[in-house]
Amino acid sequence: MRYSISESLLSKRNYVFLINTDNVSYPKAVLKKFSDINGFEAETQAMQALCKHNIAVPTTLLIEEQSIVYEHINGKLLVDYLDMLEHDKHSDEVFFIFDKLCQWLAECYTALESEYGCEMVLGDAHLRNFIYSDKIYGIDFECVKEGKKEEDIADLAVFTLVYSPMCTQQKYKLAAHILECCNRYMQLNAQLIDSEILHHIKTVEQRRGISLPKNISHNLSSVLYLQQEL
């Protein structure tokens, strides 16, 4: 397959490009050039495992050297839905889509554990790594590693809450919704979620040089304790 670069796409770790190809079925695609071999190998292995279990990910069109060409998914990054959240007319749609994300995560973890023989996590679970286009697609797997799913779920909840504008009422509701839905599909460990939320809050505070409300962890993790008491 021959291709030409159309534009550069945002990526912190790698070189990612939107490309035009001579493939009639996939005239547009995404070229991902990995900055290190470990990330390349981790993503290749994870993608093969997920495809084997029919988890929604972009089709792999070409693998060469330390690069992968993926199908281009014409959809919206989940992080962009956070901008819609503060408008009441869109909030139901956003909550529906995030429920779909939680279903996708449950299926993803089951598939990875089946293939790797142990509990695995994405390791970089933030909303820029998911696309919605009639269904959820995962698009970044270079950080997949052994771990507890509560690590990822807490990361997603905190990421949602601190996305600008931070800690709004709607953000609290959506972060709690993520925990509730994930618990419904995966039966989370509430104590582990609590400790992981605290860990991610501290990470955000240190990285951004800010102080977040002290009750965030309690407000979020209490959702699970209440749900598990019912």
UniProtKB/TrEMBL annotation:
Origin superkingdom: Bacteria
List the InterPro entries. Answer: Kinase-like_dom_sf
Q: What is this protein called?
A: RIO1 family protein
Q: Give the source species.
A: Hydrogenoanaerobacterium saccharovorans
